[in-house]
Design brief:
Elements lengths: L2 H9 L7 H15 E6 L2 E8 L2 H15 L4 E6 L7 E7 L2 H10 L3 E2 L4 E2 L11 H15 E3 L8 E5 L2 H12 L6 E5 L2 E6 L2 H10 L3 H50 L8 H12 L5 H7 L6 H21 L4 H4 L2
Antiparallel strand pairs: 1-2, 2-4, 3-4, 5-6, 7-8, 8-10, 9-10
Helix pairs in contact: 2-3, 2-5, 7-8, 8-11, 9-11, 10-11
């Protein structure tokens, strides 16, 4: 099973502590994959889904909240026997009106359907959690966090997507909305916000797995950054050492070796003897010891002398001035 399927399986086992929370979750399922039929003054409620988890959760919610049993029809795909479509219907007038009124879809006073309403009790925090849980079951998906962080909800209607976005905002979750292939997609891409929404939906096992992945990724990134930094510093040190050796060898080849001041000559000899030593290590080898900045100053002065010699083309007037 995919990570997304595991999350849905886990949250399908969660139910609200109160009836109004179950109704809120039911409202989310109806708003996304429900069909409301009307025949004169009669209504019919139908849910059609390819996901057995969604079908099972819807059936249980209706039974728990209203003591109503749905009619269940399973259609097998003639070409792909592993795929089935689950159709759950409620046709009894009293039962239908009870479900639609409680979920806020049927406006009782006006006797008409409101296609973008939530449950009347959606204003409480517990019901918002339940609504988000139902929305993820019906329209949500999540990438495997081992690959990348991405969680999204896909809606056919913009108003319903905007409604969920507002609910997510009350929890401090800033979901982005885009239009993709005629549908409206709400998505989150930050690991911390995805962890928050899993906690909101009470997907605790999935949350622990995500946090484990985040810890490993953060540690790996930290190690990579440290290694890259150390490698860059090492490359810089090696490049500087190679340049210093070239300058010292050039001075030596021009027979100007003995004309260097005593402190520079000592430093140049140590650099030739210990080409891989750091500035700090070279400083400790000098008598008396010299600090890192002091050794760096001496080596820079040697390089300046070598550069001047290269420009002067063998004119050694500078020696007499030392």
């Amino acid at each position: 099973m995919s990570f997304s399927s595991n999350v849905k399986e886990e949250i399908s086992q969660r139910f609200g502590n109160a009836r109004h929370c179950n109704i809120a979750e039911l409202a989310a399922l109806l708003n996304i994959c429900g069909y409301i039929g009307r025949f004169g003054e009669k209504f019919c409620v139908k849910i059609q889904t390819d996901n057995s988890v969604v079908a099972r959760k819807y059936f249980t919610l209706v039974q728990k909240a209203f003591k109503i049993n749905c009619n269940v029809t399973v259609r097998r795909n003639r070409f792909h026997h592993s795929n089935s479509t689950y159709i759950l219907t409620v046709t009894k007038k009293a039962d239908v009106e009870k479900i639609l009124t409680a979920t806020g879809i049927l406006l009782e006073k006006e006797n008409k359907i409101c296609n973008h309403c939530y449950a009347p009790t959606i204003y409480s925090v517990c019901c918002k959690r339940a609504y988000i849980r139902g929305a993820f079951l019906a329209a949500g998906s999540m990438n495997d966090p081992q690959k990348n962080y991405h969680l999204e909800f896909v809606y056919a209607q913009q108003k319903k997507a905007q409604g969920l976005k507002e609910i997510l905002h009350t929890f401090g979750l800033e979901a982005k909305m885009i239009k993709r292939k005629g549908h409206f997609v709400l998505y989150l891409k930050e690991g911390e916000q995805i962890a928050d929404i899993l906690n909101i939906m009470q997907a605790h096992s999935a949350l622990l797995e995500l946090e484990n992945v985040r810890v490993v990724k953060d540690m790996r990134n930290h190690v990579n950054r440290k290694v890259n930094c150390e490698t860059a510093n090492l490359n810089k040190t090696v490049a500087a050492s190679v340049k210093q050796l070239e300058d010292i060898q050039y001075i030596k080849s021009q027979k100007a070796w003995e004309n260097l001041p005593k402190n520079l000559l000592q430093t140049a000899q140590l650099r030739l003897q210990y080409p891989e030593a750091s500035l700090k290590e070279l400083g400790l080898l000098v008598h008396p010891p010299v600090g890192k900045s002091g050794i760096n100053h001496r080596l820079k002065k040697i390089s300046d002398i070598a550069e001047k010699m290269r420009k002067d083309k063998g004119d050694f007037v500078w020696r007499k001035k030392q």
